[in-house]
Amino acid sequence: MGEQWAFYFDANKCIGCHACTVACKNQNDLDPESATWRRVVQSGQGEFPDYEEISVSISCMHCEDPPCETVCPTGAIEKRDSDGIVTVNRDKCIGCHYCAWSCPYGAPKFDGDNKMQKCHMCLGKGAGEGYGSPAKKHEDDGGEKPACVDTCVGGALKAGPMDELTKEATEDAVNRATKRKGNVIIETGGPTVTFESESD
């Protein structure tokens, strides 16, 4: 397999504005009232007045060994060899929902046509195509960015090769920990998303 592409999410920079969710729906022509491929959830701890809350942006994790691909009886779900992005061929999907039941992150979504759809890192326009040209091209950097990353006002979301993102996340974490004299947790593993958050 080629370079594994991934998302990097820094909870310290997320302001919970949901711009990523709106950009995803807009880019992929999703009905505002229907399936959401990227969502922002709030997680809190403590009690007033010491209550703290963070926002976390979540989509398909493009897992190293995707359970949705394993359980799909028609082979509609595929992890691409070129970049590790998990895609769905809606023409092969029979709407059995096995993928939704197997995914621990709630990524597979179904709409009126009962065909699975999910994040494909903006590989192609249209709900769930997952194939074709990148949806966003930026002349200034020569690369492609998913709509959610392009729209993130706080710079909390990034996308790219996993090795590069992990290196950048580690450098950011060390810099932040040095400035604040705190501990920063970098989580990597099966899902190809790196989350950064502070810990006491």
Key traits:
alpha+beta, two-stranded antiparallel sheet, 200 residues, 4-stranded mixed β-sheet
Protein architecture, described:
By secondary structure, the chain is of the alpha+beta class. The protein has a single domain, classed as 2-Layer Sandwich (Alpha-Beta Plaits), CATH 3.30.70. Helices cover about 20% and strands about 25% of the residues. It has a four-stranded mixed beta sheet. A two-stranded antiparallel ribbon has the order 2-3. InterPro entries: 4Fe4S_Fe-S-bd, 4Fe4S_Fe_S_CS, ET_IronSulfur_Cluster-Binding. Keywords: 4Fe-4S, Electron transport, Iron, Iron-sulfur, Metal-binding, Repeat, Transport. This is Anaerobic dimethyl sulfoxide reductase subunit B (DMSO reductase iron-sulfur subunit). GO terms for molecular function: 4 iron, 4 sulfur cluster binding; metal ion binding; oxidoreductase activity.
